[in-house]
Design brief:
Layout (H helix, E strand, L loop, with lengths): L2 H14 L8 E3 L2 E3 L1 E6 L2 E6 L5 E5 L2 H11 L4 E5 L2 E5 L4 E4 L2 E7 L5 E4 L5 E5 L6 E6 L5 E8 L18 E4 L5 E8 L6 E4 L5 E3 L2 E3 L4 E6 L2 E2 L2 E3 L2 E3 L4 E7 L4 E2 L2 E3 L2 E3 L14 E7 L5 E7 L2 E11 L3 E7 L2 E11 L2 E7 L2 E5 L5 E3 L2 E2 L2 E3 L2 E5 L7 E5 L5 E3 L2 E4 L10 E6 L5 E3 L2 E4 L8 E6 L5 E3 L2 E4 L5 E6 L5 E3 L2 E4 L12 E3 L7 E3 L2 E3 L7 E3 L9 E3 L10 E2 L8 E4 L9 E4 L6 E7 L4 E20 L2 E7 L6 E6 L4 E17 L1
């Protein structure tokens, strides 16, 4: 270390630490209290002020611990370059846990090395943590390499001792920086039950359980700019065990390849960042900012009750799922990217309330995914807005890809999302789907696709939703049968308001497919516009009454066709607003017994008529007047259109 750098560090340490009894002075290039170095087969302890030899030993761990013990009120221990093999257990951490070096009584210690050239390495079968701190404060550990030598440790299972690189329990203001921790049998760096720890600019590589863990009752943790490569359970673990975690920040960390499958605990969950804990405790007011997670089962996942979590600008790729949430209240994910999703959904909100997914880019969901959905919400009061979602292409035999899925959810807001499908040989993606979902608002979204047989917005068993101001442009080939359209509703969807949407269906049968069968609460289709070559609203009146409200400007948006009647009688009602409308009914096919009745503004004009193919009649309606048709037919197809 250069003298100028040491001087700056000394000023910082003077503020951070209580002044030790042995005043720190310059010795050569170093500012320290005690210097440790290797000479031949011995580890030497020297006084930094005088350079005099204080002690030597063949047991490196015991000598480093003796050096710590000499600084009863604190100080700096500088460990020279070299490989120090640690075999003894010098720190009793309690409950069966031990460490080679550290303290359970002395605070205000700086432990400094010469970067990666200073190596503290566990000896074969040492079966202990490397550095352990118990109920001590203001330790600063930096510029070291810690080698857990996991291949040569014979501790097995999940019984203690846990083989940490660094373990701190119950201490405040612990700081770990520029440490390279690797090949630990269990955990890389773990800090529990202490406030204001700083874990920054470290590398944690190939530790069998977790990379970095923040656990227990804690306030103000900062975990920043770390690189975690290789773990089995969790890259970055946040655990509210027997205490709340409040006001912590996790930013600019890189978490990669959480797929070792070597956890001694038998749980190889493969989570990038994970929220967990014990019942009754919460994680609150925590920020995840600009982290990158690459190759993990889950990018960000959590089962612990959590409040006011902000995940902003995080990047997740090559993941089974990007974000998986349960019991999260007030969670916001914004301005991040999730791509190459192998299982799906990319984001799944399975529990909690008041969740916001804003401005996230999601792309490259594997066509072979089990649940190839970009965003799925199963809860109420979620806002999903301004996200950019790229689907597909879906292979003919694969599951349907969905941009946004609301499942059994109410009072959600979907707005200003863009969903598009990559052009390919597949088909049948759905931009936005509501499944058993009610009282949701779907406004100002955009759905685009050039693939065949796509559906823009689909409602299944969903009621009383508002679908308004959306633009759906499907320019691929269309199915000639079935309910495939820019907007489609199944037979049990009713009471939905589908208004002011711009719909393009390419060669589709219809711009809107409405199979509603509930006569008491029909769907309302009003002021929708767009170009659809074949025109019509498909199936607007199967076994029930559906209001088809026309504004007098769009022929294609207030026409209707039905296929194959059935008993009891089927009814449709069309209401004209804003301008007079010419309504035409035309029988295009039919055979067997069939009867038809027509009302205009409550007056029956045709009663139980049996038309033949090609029969038609036209009626002019003034604003506010209604046109109603009832029919009974074994197999009849007719068109009701307006101009």
């Amino acid at each position: 270390m250069k003298a100028a750098g040491v001087l700056v560090l000394g000023v910082l340490l003077a503020c951070l630490f209580v002044s030790p009894v042995n005043a720190e002075e310059f010795h050569g290039e170093m500012l320290c209290s005690i210097e440790v170095e290797i000479n031949g087969g011995y580890t030497l302890m020297k006084d930094c002020r005088t350079g005099s030899l204080l002690f030597h030993s063949t047991d490196a761990a015991s000598l480093i611990n003796d050096a710590i013990g000499n600084l009863t009120t604190g100080g700096t221990i500088f460990i020279r370059a070299g490989t120090y093999t640690l075999t003894s257990h010098n720190v009793n951490m309690g409950a069966g846990q031990t460490a080679a070096v550290g303290s359970s009584s002395i605070s205000n210690i700086e432990l400094e090395g010469e970067g990666n050239t200073t190596v503290l390495r566990l000896g074969a079968n040492a079966n202990t943590a490397i550095i352990g701190l118990l109920n001590v404060n203001r330790w600063y550990i930096h510029d070291l390499q810690l080698d857990g030598n996991r291949a040569n440790q014979n501790a097995t299972g999940n019984t203690k001792p846990f083989l940490f690189g660094i373990e701190s329990f119950g201490g405040n203001n612990i700081r770990v920086e520029y440490v390279y921790v690797h090949d630990c049998k269990t955990f890389g760096i773990g800090v529990a039950y202490g406030n204001n720890p700083i874990i920054a600019d470290n590398w944690v590589v190939n530790c069998n359980a977790n990379g970095i863990g923040i656990d227990g009752s804690m306030v103000g943790a900062v975990v920043s700019h770390n690189v975690i490569i290789g773990a089995s359970d969790v890259g970055l673990d946040i655990g509210a065990f027997d205490g709340n975690i409040v006001g912590s920040t996790f930013d600019n960390n890189i978490v990669q390849d959480i797929s070792l499958g070597l956890s001694p605990f038998g749980v190889n969950s493969g989570d990038g960042i994970y929220f967990e804990g014990s019942e009754g405790y919460v994680i609150n007011a925590t920020t995840l900012d600009a982290n990158t997670i690459d190759t993990a089962s889950f990018g960000i996942a959590g089962l612990q009750t959590s409040y006011q979590i902000l995940a902003e600008g995080n990047i997740m790729r090559n993941v089974g799922q990007g974000i998986y949430l349960t019991s999260f209240n007030g969670f916001t994910a914004s301005d991040g990217t999730i791509d190459t999703v192998k299982v799906g959904p990319a984001i799944q909100v399975a529990g909690g309330t008041d969740v916001r997914i804003i401005g996230v880019t999601i792309r490259e969901i594997y066509a072979a995914s089990t649940y190839p959905y970009a965003i799925e919400s199963d809860i109420d009061n979620t806002t999903i807005g301004q996200n950019n979602i790229v689907l597909g292409p879906r292979p003919p035999s694969g599951p349907t890809e969905i941009g946004v899925l609301l499942s059994s959810a109410t009072h959600n807001m979907l707005t200003k999302n863009i969903v598009s499908s990559l052009l390919g040989p597949g088909c049948c993606n759905v931009g936005i789907e509501l499944s058993n979902a009610s009282y949701n608002t779907i406004v100002n979204n955009r759905v685009y696709s050039e693939n065949n047989y796509e559906t823009g917005i689909y409602m299944f068993a969903s009621q009383h939703n508002t679908v308004q101001g959306n633009v759906v442009r499907l320019t691929g080939g269309a199915a000639t049968t079935g309910c495939t359209a820019p907007i489609a509703m199944d037979g049990t969807s009713h009471g939905n308001e589908v208004n002011h949407n711009e719909l393009t269906g390419g060669g589709y049968i219809a711009a809107i497919c409405d199979l509603a069968t509930n006569a008491s609460r029909p769907n309302s289709l009003a002021f929708n516009s767009g170009y659809n070559p074949l025109g019509y609203i498909q199936y607007p009146f199967v076994n029930g009454t559906t209001d088809v409200i026309c504004d007098g400007s769009s022929n294609t948006m207030c026409g209707g066709t039905t296929v194959k009647g059935s008993t009891p009688a089927n009814t449709t009602t069309m209401t004209v607003i804003e301008s007079p409308k010419l309504i035409t009914i035309e029988v295009t096919s039919g055979y067997g017994a069939s009867t038809l009745s027509v009302w205009v503004d409550g007056q029956e004009l045709i009663t139980n008529y049996t038309p033949s193919k090609g029969w038609s009649a036209s009626y002019r309606l003034d604003p506010g007047e209604t046109f109603k048709v009832t029919y009974w037919a074994s197999a009849t197809k007719f068109i009701v259109s307006g101009q």
